[in-house]
Amino acid sequence: ATRRAVQEYLRETFAQSERRDPTQIRKVLLAEAEVALTRRVAVEEANPVCDENMGTGINGSSYRGCQQVTTSGKPCQKWSDMGDIGLNTQAGNEFGLEDAYCRNPNGQKDTIWCYTSVLPQQFEYCQPVEQPSCAVTGTCKSSEATCT
Question: Closest Cα partner for 98 from 42, 50, 130, 43?
């Protein structure tokens, strides 16, 4: 009974408000739409869309997936935490050097890689997320994730 009383009260209050100011409903709906859009954008930013395709770049240089662990299971170091390692992560970030994602800037290494967060820090190769596992000595190089 209490729930119905509250619902009825809210309906009546809204109807009275709408009679006094017909534009009120438009303001409320626009405000709700803005809140919903803001929430959706926040969710999209918190959960990036990952493209695990190796792309057409040389040795996976266009890979923009979300792999953050090396083939040996070591966690990757955030690119922004690496300091001066010769890769400028601020210059428009054309190489996708964000967070701790595996990348291959300029395609200079055999496939995607990252610096590990395990000391001593060194780079290790990665495989795209949910791709077939390569032999221990192989690396994935193509968009079909074939192993060599």
Answer: 50
